[in-house]
Amino acid sequence: MTNSKFIKSITFIYLLITDSYTVKLLSKFNKYMMHSVKCSLTYRTIVKDYRMFDIWRTSITGKAIHSIISAFWGAKNKCLDYINDSTETSFFYSIFCAPYEFCNKTRLRGYSFILIAVLFMLLEIHLILLLVGFAYILYVSLFKTIKGIYIFAFLLPLLNLTQIIFFAFIIFISFIAKEKETKTVKLEPFFILFFVFLVLAVLISPFKVSSMRTLTLYISGMIFAYTLVNLLNTDKRLINFMKVNVSAGLFQSLYAILQYRLRISMGGTWVDVEAFGEVTTRAMGTLGNPNVLAKYLVLVGVMAVIIVLTEKKIWERLFYGFCGAMIFTGLMLSLSRGGWLAFLFAITIFFVLIDKRLLIAIGTMGALSIVMLPDIVMRRFASIVNLADSSNAYRISIWIGTLDLVKYHWLRGVGLGLEAFSYQYQFFVFGSALAVHSHNLFLQLASEIGALGLVTFFVLLLALWKWVILSIPRMPRRKNVIITYGLLAAMAGHILHGTVEHVWFDPRILFFFWLIIGLIISSVEIGAETND
């Protein structure tokens, strides 16, 4: 194989390209630009450590909040110690624990019951069986929190808003009931600042019940992220959690491919029938919307790439490489142009961060894609810049109307949630483009929580990125660096997708965003602990 003409040809072409005058010139230009950027006042201002966390903790507000949390945690530990002492011989406690002890007497029996519960939820044979499966998984999560978060990650694409909130709070209760100490998140002041604007948006909303429901979803995402930061405290746990997400992505992708293959009808609202009349269906998995499926697959697809690059066992690399290929196929069959751009952007950012030479691989795959991808995919991709496309024209009309809404309600917004937005949007409709959301994450946030609220979101993202970038050089292990860069790139792709879609329209994707933040913080913390 090593002496074949094909391998020799590829090697010759690679050496010819890398030793060419053009590549050397570009390399020198890149070094010059990097040196100029690092020496600039702007760069030094951005990367300077302003020790915001220390300033926050020494402030009156920071001290007060920290004291309240510490007092709560201390009282909680005392109460739990008392409860544990008093329930050891309690008849009711033994009755409560009896089903768990029976179902988990052996590892095989324990996983069998979990599998049955998951199947009850997947198959949805009967409402009672679905509720029994859901209740059993929650019951197990109270005893084994780490097992609960793995199951939650797999089931997330199948859950509705109420189930997500309920599951997240049960896992959080299980976490605080068992953990004596917790980690301090250095981005704490930025999360609190953003959360304050979310609360204010609920207070001014004309639909407080709906807005409160949305706020509860935000809270559930944040507390789940905090749970992940504390429980995913080793490389093994972090990688295993990503493997579960990729497995869920594989399930969604195979189901989506089957949908597309069987030409399951989905109505005419998802494609431009004039430009793409031959398209009768788009893959959407169990998420009920091809664009939502694409948002989900972009995030888990990057996780699959991370696992392939960090795992040592060949069979795991092959399996998760297969998972990544299926996820990519599902993403392509969703025909979501925003999803394609987001995934391409995320992978490009990922490869640039870990090794710029991998851009050659991206360029090669891009060139091959032009030749190998179906005509419908290439035409749909090309239609991204076609303003005559009905989908593009519709989005632009909505953006114009939303901008007018933001100009009028720029200070405090219209209230948190889709109901508050859609009620106010009807007074600013441009043309006939009625909509329940703005098809742009940033316009949506600006309209719901005001311009200042949007600024706090940007500040949170920038603080996270800065903290991660400054923490990377202190990680001694390449594996931690790759994981952190990969998760950061996944978020970058998600944010780019937000420029053409309200990516948080679906509660599962909004929740997944906070899950990604939890994974990023957890990855950085693990890398820092490895250094210590």
Outline the secondary-structure elements:
Elements: H1 5-18, H2 21-39, H3 41-47, H4 52-58, H5 60-87, H6 91-103, H7 107-123, H8 127-143, H9 145-155, H10 161-178, H11 188-203, H12 208-231, H13 235-261, H14 290-310, H15 314-333, H16 337-354, H17 359-372, H18 375-382, H19 390-408, H20 418-425, H21 441-471, H22 478-497, H23 507-531
Helix pairs in contact: 7-8, 8-9, 8-10, 9-10, 9-13, 10-12, 11-12, 11-21, 12-23, 13-14, 13-15, 14-15, 14-16, 14-22, 16-22, 19-21, 22-23
In summary, what is this structure?
The protein is mostly helical and 532 residues long.
DSSP E strands, number: 0
Helical stretch tally: 23
Q: What would you report as the Rg, rounded to the nearest angstrom? A: 25 Å
How are helices and strands ordered from N to C?
HHHHHHHHHHHHHHHHHHHHHHH
How would the global form be characterised?
Answer: globular
